[in-house]
Amino acid sequence: MKYYLIAGEASGDLHAGNLMRELKRQDQEAAFRFIGGERMEAVGGTLVRHYKELAYMGFVPVLLHLPTILKNMALCKQDIAAWRPDVVILVDYPGFNLSIAKYVHNAGICPVFYYISPKIWAWKEYRIKSIRRDVDELFSILPFEVEWFAERGMPIHYVGNPCVDAVKREQKRFRDFSELRSIAILPGSRRQEIKDNLGMMLRAASRFKDYKLVIAGAPNIELDYYKQYIPTDVKARVVFGHTYQVLGESVAALVTSGTATLETAILRVPQVVCYYTPVGKFISFLRKRIIKVPFISLVNLIAGKEIVEELVADRMTEENIAKGLERILPLHAGREQMLQDYDLMNKALGGTGASRRAAKEMIKCLKQSKQ
Fold first, then answer.
1. First CA to last CA across the chain, in angstroms?
2. CA atoms of 50 and 131, how far apart (whole Å)
3. Which of 58, 126, 220, 332 is the most exposed place for a label (fewest CB within 10 A)?
């Protein structure tokens, strides 16, 4: 069968690549075209556009690059229409992907599958209408989503979380925590996130002189960009392409909200979630009235309680980060409790095999739709 996949950022590229590998294993005639990155390209097929040409975040960056975004969207639609795939598989990235879903549905080209369902339970719940209308099958990697979507009339397949597979493959290479003398800094995968978060995270972590600071670099960001935001009086190393190893060989981590918080928890690395935004007090005010969930980190959402401290908007200060980090370093009270809570969260996620289950379920759904 012919599979057209769209992933708009680094984490989507990783999980889409693993999904493609399983589709290829279970469907000997699988052919791929995709918008994505190196992980997807390594499996094989045709890369139509790299995700770095799509990954703009925030109102101003999106506005500035709107002609490029619209051009890529038009190209994607034309390419799908010309290739006539058996299915379009959308991976997260809802701003772009829901527009593609609407086009494919209205044109009657093929079924639309959504892998890693949009996080509309946090905000923009109105998008459920377009998902019900334009998406044929929804595949979730977060257990609490099943009930949420079902209550709103959209059946969903829970296939497990692919982060578990990705982490387990790497975990055996890591040293014991007792030997570790590093603090991992994960300031996000987008330029704006790095600009907003990195400097403050480093200044707070640099207070702990016994530890080296290691920044996990995003694959689509060059080293010189990071150097702009490393304070001159702080010594830190940037490592690209080995995020799991950076985490696994660190005693604790400062992590921006997103998939990275979940990956850090699966690796059982104590963390503080940091997400600074300009006009923080205003953002905090809006958060209480717009965002529909009590937490922003996937770790806390899956657990249904606060496992990791969340320093968001005006709560993210150098002092608060330092205090939060100190609580989870060795010989401090919060560390052992967080590790115990991690074990409960990991149990809720389920075991390995998410990509395999997702591929199997997708192929099954496609065969049924052709009957």
1. 15
2. 25
3. 126
Ordered per-residue pLDDT tens for the chain, 371 residues: 999 999 988 888 989 999 999 999 999 999 999 999 999 999 999 999 998 877 555 444 545 555 677 788 899 999 999 999 999 999 988 989 999 999 999 999 999 999 998 888 887 888 999 999 999 999 999 999 999 999 999 989 999 999 898 888 777 666 555 567 899 999 998 898 999 999 999 999 999 999 999 999 998 799 999 999 999 999 999 999 899 989 989 999 999 978 899 999 999 999 999 998 775 454 444 445 455 567 889 999 999 899 999 999 889 999 999 999 999 999 898 999 999 999 999 988 888 899 999 999 999 999 998 77
**DSSP-assigned letter for residue 32:** E
CA distances from 242 to 70, 170, 353 (A): 33, 10, 22
Tell me the one-letter amino acid at 187. Answer: P
User: Mapping DSSP to helix (H, G, I), strand (E, B) and coil, where does residue 3 land?
Assistant: strand
Beta strands in 92-167 (DSSP E): 112-115, 137-140, 157-158
Instruction: Give the CA distances from residue 173 to residues 14, 28, 297, 351, in Å, rounded to whole numbers and listed in that order.
Output: 19, 32, 27, 19
Instruction: Assign 287 to helix, strand or coil.
Output: helix
Q: What span, in angstroms and rounded, lies between the C-alpha atoms of 121 and 105?
A: 23
Domains of the chain, CATH where assigned? 2-160+353-370 (3.40.50.2000), 166-349 (3.40.50.2000)
Q: Does residue 178 come out as left (phi exceeding 0), alpha (psi in the -120 to 50 range) or beta?
A: alpha
The alpha helices in 4-116, defined as continuous H runs, are: 10-26, 38-43, 59-64, 66-83, 94-107
> Any long-range contacts for 47-55 (C-beta under 8 Å, 24+ apart)?
48/75, 48/76, 48/79, 49/75, 49/76, 51/7, 51/8, 51/9, 51/10, 51/12, 51/13, 51/220, 52/220, 54/8, 54/93, 54/96, 55/8, 55/9, 55/189, 55/190, 55/220
